[in-house]
Design goal:
440 residues, mainly alpha, Growth Hormone, Chain: A, 21 helices, globular
């Protein structure tokens, strides 16, 4: 008797390699969310404008754009495992560079360290995402990637915990006097220099510890045999692959959509602190709302992975994007805690987006998935320049977050018009997937 049995999402034969590669998703989630609060931290410690502080994200996500294609070349020429090991080496180097950066007390050095760190993340994401897609049948590929990506917010929550417990809670530049006014702004000379030195060392320590842990992971993965599909003998060179994939509308649309999605995600998670501060909530308490956003994101990721068994991926992507637009409208026009709650709820809608866009764009590309993956990782550059644009909106009337009103709301509220536009782009891609690309 014949039965149509759906292949397993993950075969038992490759369970250990799958677990190890999936752990990397948590590892770059950690890096993302320990870094998001640094925009606000560096602004206070080094007395920067919103635009200057936003260069933390520009350096962080700019590294993805720089190294994605070299990562794809290494993966195509050698193997996914080689690309991952190179990525871990660069990740560790960037994290350890925080030590001399803090010693020199130089903002540009910190930006360079973040830039190098994300060279490693670019290698990891360019290789790990298509590697997970390859670890089984194509019909379960998007579901498998959603499962692996579900561990990304676990790393993000850990990063946020470290940021709150070991960085933000220990920063002396956040101390207030008995009247609730910042003390750091009133200090001069040696007193201010002492606080600055102390706070930069507080930021340094978790990154150095992270670098040492990444070295441990690199050794562990080097010792474990990884499944590798042999490349077709007739496979063409990388340049030919790139020419071929850019003739596919679904892939090109996916790259553009991923750029807008990542920009929206980073804006919503970076500027939640500024939004909360405008409501009288300091950074230490604002982290709790960032926690809530990540927990909702994590639960949404697992729920959506399950729902993909029953609902077309394009349809679910479109519906959640429309819901995200509605929550963004609430963030902009509901003044007070209701607006902050709307901003937190955007994270539920975002939970599905990255891996689903990724999976749809790479569907059916075969060996071309390696260079194609590079362009989807390069699209993460949206997280580099879009927060800078939002920072420029915040600086329109001055360094505060409510210097002027636009459409009747403070500029910090209005600045979330940028994520709203991004989610509209994602909704259109979901619709195109459903109607034109016919991807399940």
């Amino acid at each position: 008797m014949k039965t149509d049995q759906k292949p397993p999402v993950v075969s038992k034969k490759i369970l250990l390699p799958f677990i190890l590669i999936t752990s990397l998703f948590a590892l770059w989630g950690f890096a993302n969310d320990i870094t998001n609060p640094m925009v606000s931290a560096f602004k206070k410690i080094l007395e920067l404008s919103n635009t200057q502080a936003s260069w933390v994200q520009a350096a962080f996500y700019g590294g993805y754009f720089t190294m994605a294609l070299p990562a794809a070349y290494v993966a195509k020429k050698y193997s996914y495992k080689t690309g991952i090991l190179v990525g871990l080496a660069l990740y560790a180097t960037g994290a350890l560079l925080f030590y001399p950066a803090a010693a020199m007390e130089n903002y540009m050095f910190f930006l360079v360290a973040l830039y190098v760190l994300t060279f490693g993340l670019a290698f990891l994401e360019t290789t790990s995402n298509p590697f997970i897609l390859d670890m089984g049948a194509e019909e379960t590929a998007t579901q498998r990637l959603n499962l692996a990506q579900s561990f990304n917010p676990i790393g993000a929550l850990t990063g946020l915990f470290v940021a709150q417990t070991f960085i933000l809670a220990a920063l002396r530049s956040d101390d207030l006097d008995v009247n609730g006014n910042p003390i750091y702004e009133t200090l001069t000379g040696a007193a201010k220099a002492s606080v600055k030195t102390s706070d930069l060392q507080v930021i340094r320590n978790p990154y150095v510890a992270l670098g040492l842990f990444v070295i441990f992971m690199m050794v562990l993965i080097a010792l474990v045999k990884m499944p590798e599909k042999k490349e077709d003998e007739n496979a063409t060179d990388m340049f030919s692959s790139i020419k071929r994939i850019f003739k596919k509308e679904r892939f090109v649309g996916g790259v553009l959509t991923q750029m807008f999605y990542v920009g929206a995600q980073i804006m919503c998670w970076t500027y939640i602190y500024q939004y909360a501060e405008n409501l009288g909530i300091d950074n230490r308490e604002a982290v709790n709302y960032a926690y809530a956003a990540l927990i909702i994101f994590l639960l949404g990721r697992f729920l959506c992975t399950y729902l993909l068994k029953f609902i077309n991926s394009g349809k679910l992507l479109m519906l959640l994007s429309i819901l995200a637009v509605i929550f963004c409208l609430g963030t902009i026009f509901i003044q007070g805690m209701g607006g902050l709650y709307s901003l937190v709820l955007v994270s539920f809608c975002m939970s599905l987006m990255f891996p689903t866009i990724y999976g749809i764009a790479l569907t059916g590309l075969g060996d071309d998935a390696k260079p194609a993956s590079a362009f989807l990782v390069m699209a993460i550059v949206g997280g580099a320049f879009m927060p800078v644009l939002q920072g420029m909106i915040l600086d329109m009337g001055g360094s505060a977050y409510n210097d002027i009103t636009i459409l009747g709301v403070p500029e910090v509220n209005f600045s979330f018009i940028l994520p709203l536009v991004c989610f509209l782009v994602v909704a259109i891609y979901g619709y195109r997937t459903l109607k034109a690309y016919k991807v399940g």
